[in-house]
Amino acid sequence: MLLARDLALELLSGRLSPIDLVARCAETIAARDPEIGAFAALDIAGAEAAAAVPGLAAAPLAGLPLAIKDVIDTRDLPTQYGSDLYAGHRPAADAAVVRQVKRAGGLVIGKSVTTEFAFMQPAGTRNPRRLTHTPGGSSSGSAAAVAAGMVPLALGTQTGGSVIRPAAFCGVTGYKPTFRTLPTVGMKTFSWHLDTLGLFGARVCDVGFAAAALTGRDLDIGDAVAQAPRIAVVRTARAHLAEPASHAALDAAIAAATRAGAVVREIALPDEIEAADAAHPVIQDFEGNLALADEFDLHRDRLSAVLAAYLTRAAAVTPDAYDEARRTAKRARQRLGDLFADYDMLLTFSAPGAAPAGFETTGSPAFNRLWTLMGTPCLNVTGCADAQGLPVGVQIVGRFGRDRAALLSAAFLERALAN
Ligand SMILES: NC(=O)CC(=O)O
């Protein structure tokens, strides 16, 4: 994989030019994407032209090429939301986060494949770790493009588990920042209480570097790691949904963290927090039904059967149920804040197991959706694999608004697992 932060330092030093890096990415894309299908659209020429701008390497992103998930509007490339309803659709303006990429000196080399409206209908992308397996979703192309070494960084989105789960399946670092750290203006909305922009990179320091470059926040952790963090392991009430490989990965992470000096304790989540897991689908259903009302009312026959059936069911959620779900979520966030008085991070599953074989599903968000609703920073940490050699992720959950601490904790675990 391409190491974004190391490449940025090479670009800044002049040992590598942005044009040469674009050429390297383009060569890998040409060699690997025909069998992986990570990209919905490419703009190599546009990236080459942008790479020629003098002084680019001194910018925060130093001329690094990025893939942008195709639910995020781009003025220079089609934005099709994973649906033929929007075939060839060309937004008049870039999404706010795309402007942040360009202002920071990043190069948009292409649009990465999304599932239909970032929901559950699998797209055509394959897992670079094993081509007969799903890469996960809904940020399928973003995770696959980074895993295959086509780009050093990719933008994705998460409403359920669409950053953390594909990152785990493809063996890359996925970072879902605190809610609204990155602006969702110009992203195709599914749920305005849940939609969160995230990043994919090879390592924790790479996504931290990118987040710092985009936002100007103190998130570039470099080689730093947390010192002896207090870790609460939470398998949650859904632990029965985790396969043996995920339990084994969590056990390996616990052992590695303990060896590295962490204080690790396994706890049960308080009932108020567990209750929010059931609130997530109520909020997603109510808001998704409205966010996709035009497509559902006017083009239902051109939606996948999965999405059409979902939106039909989602219409049944009442305003009272929606309001109660939001109150449940608020109580859970308050209780979670209390929990973090005693711990620096939570450690849990990233997904039920390794990437499922076949392409009938992109996997389950069972271990992601609660944290999406909590709005807390989450990272998939690499370093574990199952008996067949497929990556199995473990997930760090940090305190709301404390993203630097979450990145340092994730870097601590990443290093502990690598040693
Ligand atoms: N958009 C989403 O997060 C849905 C999923 O978990 O696949």
From TrEMBL:
Domain Amidase: from-to ranges: 20-405
GO molecular function: transferase activity
A Pfam family matched in the record: Amidase
Keywords: Transferase
The family this protein is said to belong to: Belongs to the amidase family.
The protein, known as: Asp-tRNA(Asn)/Glu-tRNA(Gln) amidotransferase A subunit family amidase
Lineage, uppermost ranks: Bacteria, Pseudomonadati, Pseudomonadota, Alphaproteobacteria, Hyphomicrobiales
